Amino acid sequence: MKNIIISDIHSNVDALLAVVKEIAGKEFPISRILIAGDIVGYGASPNECCDVVRFLLYGRKAVEVTKINEIAAQPYLDSHQQHDLYHALLALEKKGLAIGGNHDREAAGEPSLTSEMNPVALAAINWTKGVLTKENLKFLRGLSLRMKFGKEGFEIVHSTPSYPRGYEYVRNAGVLKYTTLWSPVTFGGHTHRPSAYIYTRETRTVNASVLVPADNYDMRLMLIEKESTNKVESFAIDSSKDWKYYVNVGSVGQPRDGNPHACYVIFDSTEKHLEFKRVSYNAEAASKRITEAKLPKELSERVLKGV
């Protein structure tokens, strides 16, 4: 099955729409779009992002096509581009499955993790709470924190299987180890940095777009990503070995690896092959929305720089 996996949309509708158009234009037909949490937070378009995601999950019974057409009619697109985007959204109707992340739970008023959020993130969450529609608030509250595809040997989670909305993974990469991964392949996000790691029972090696050789591994890995010169953008999952893989699919709406382009991953669960992808989008429009919403200035700058 051909799965598109995305994460950390963070209320950036411009990035999300660019990814949708890319998927429908270049990756179709696909089996599923899997969304690994943090649909909202940071950005200025939480309702538009929730509406698009709900349409991908439930179709026009949840979100009317007139609303989808309205979202597709972005002013920086010409009429032909708007038409193509609208039909790209229609082509992906009911192709989606989603879980929640820590920002989604915070925005929905779930048990608080705000003490662990920095002031910028907390300010954005408080703003988001004030603008979410009742439908989207209910949607966010209903999202599970993990989703397992046992027959295909993988699962999606926002952070880690044992603490799916927590900050352990960001602060200490040591929590990721063979024994704390519950499936042969785990897809997550949370750090906004695309990367992938191979775990064995004894040692750890690495393979992905951000590679960290086992001999460079340290407990601060997620805070200071060390890059290898041996980078790859795609690789095969070796099912013949007793390995476990953790794949961070990066961020659609707020990448933090120095590349502002939106991220997504293609995973063929039949062929066991994985590929990282990047998509350029109108980051200036996303930045302007943040400024106009009077959200922290830092957020308007980050989408432009990918930091």
DSSP strand tally: 12
Structural class: alpha/beta
Relevant CATH superfamily: Metallo-dependent phosphatases
The SSE order reads EHEHHHEHHHEEHEEEEEEEHH
Q: What is the highest CATH level, the class? A: Alpha Beta
Quick synopsis:
With 307 residues, this protein is an alpha/beta fold. The chain is built from ten helices and twelve strands. The chain has helices at 13-27, 46-58, 65-72, 79-91, 102-107, 119-131, 134-141, 168-171, 283-292, 297-305, and strands at residues 2-6, 32-36, 96-99, 146-149, 154-157, 185-188, 195-199, 204-206, 234-236, 244-248, 262-268, 273-279.
Describe this structure in words.
The chain is globular and about 50 Å long. It has a single domain (2-305), classed as Purple Acid Phosphatase, chain A, domain 2 (4-Layer Sandwich), CATH 3.60.21.10. The model is unreliable at 205-229 (pLDDT under 50). The chain has helices at residues 13-27, 46-58, 65-72, 79-91, 102-107, 119-131, 134-141, 168-171, 283-292, 297-305; strands at 2-6, 32-36, 96-99, 146-149, 154-157, 185-188, 195-199, 204-206, 234-236, 244-248, 262-268, 273-279. The strands form two sheets. The protein has a six-stranded mixed β-sheet with strand order 3-2-1-11-12-9. Strands 4-5-6-10-7-8 form a six-stranded mixed β-sheet, with no helix packed on it. It is α/β, with parallel strands linked by helices and 307 residues long.
